[in-house]
Amino acid sequence: MGMRAWFGGRPVLLAAFLLFIVLDFFLLHGFAPVEHPLQDALLRLHAAHRTPDPDVVVVNVDEPSLLAAQKELGVGWPWPRAMYADLLQGILKQDPKAVLFDIYFVDPSSRGQEDDAYLVQVATASDKASALRDEIDRLRD
After folding, report:
1. Average pLDDT of 11-17?
2. Which long-range contacts (CB under 8 A, 24 or more apart) does 63-72 make?
3. What share of the chain is helix, strand, coil (3-state, %, to 5)?
4. How far is residue 116's CA from residue 108's CA, in Å, rounded to a whole number?
5. How do residues 100-129 score in pLDDT, each as one tens digit?
């Protein structure tokens, strides 16, 4: 069965459909509201059948963490850089191969230059936090 028979001999419909797909992909973004949830669902489905690597530990700053910090420490978001520095010191005591932060430190700390300096000091004291050091180099400027 050829394409012509499948589209009932209407190549114009096929061309219009393909044009719509290309326009949506590059300009309209009509599928964007379902694209990310669909990707998340597919990733969860894939991850559900995989065994986690025992050598990888993820420290997740999630909503319960934010609420606990607010309640117990009186610290809201964004957290002070000193909290990350203390966390990093605790992790480095465990002798990891590497420590990565999935947080952008793009603006200087709202708590002052000393807050940034403390995180820089802790991160630069170890070769295990090289990715964080690269990010922190921008804070020094």
Report:
1. 82
2. none
3. 60, 0, 40
4. 7
5. 888 878 778 888 889 888 988 888 888 887
User: Which ranges in 3-105 belong to alpha helices (H)?
Assistant: 3-6, 11-23, 32-47, 63-68, 81-92
Alpha-carbon distance 109 to 132, whole Å? 15
CA distance 38 to 41: 5
The tokens describing 111, both together, are: 């708590």
Distance CA 45, CA 48 (A): 5
- Tell me the two tokens of residue 36: 């990310």
Prediction pTM value: 0.60
Q: What is the pLDDT of residues 62-78, one digit of tens each?
A: 899 899 999 998 988 88
Q: CA 133: distance to chain centroid? A: 18
